[in-house]
Amino acid sequence: MSKRIFGYRTSMKRSFVTPPALGAAALAVAVMLGGGSAGAKNTAMRFYGIVRHVSANNLKVYNPVQKKTVSFLIAPKFHNVFKAGSKTTQLSTIAPGQYVEVRYDRKLLGQAHADRINLLDHDNRIFYKQ
User: Fold this and answer.
1) Rounded to whole angstroms, how far apart are CA atoms 48 and 70?
2) Which domains, and CATH codes, for the chain?
């Protein structure tokens, strides 16, 4: 028979997990289950609407269906503006009142920034090479 110490048998020893070890284990499980960064999951977000404001580092687009305005940051050397036929054009060709599709993500401090801007025609269609 085992020796008893304070009501416990020596074979019933408790193992303790320190709080830092528990936190590290929880973090490892969260990363394995896909709970990594929130921006990694939202890399293909799109927003359609009418341009309200354009500047060198900012683009503001209004969607009349959702009644929502979203402001996008633009990198200083942004060259991903596409028009009919998938031809690139300069950012200066975008004017207020124009229909656009903005592909964006929120990897930069949670702020939406444009990765690609497609200029749309009056039927809100993108023309690609065929």
Assistant:
1) 10
2) 42-119 (2.40.50.140)
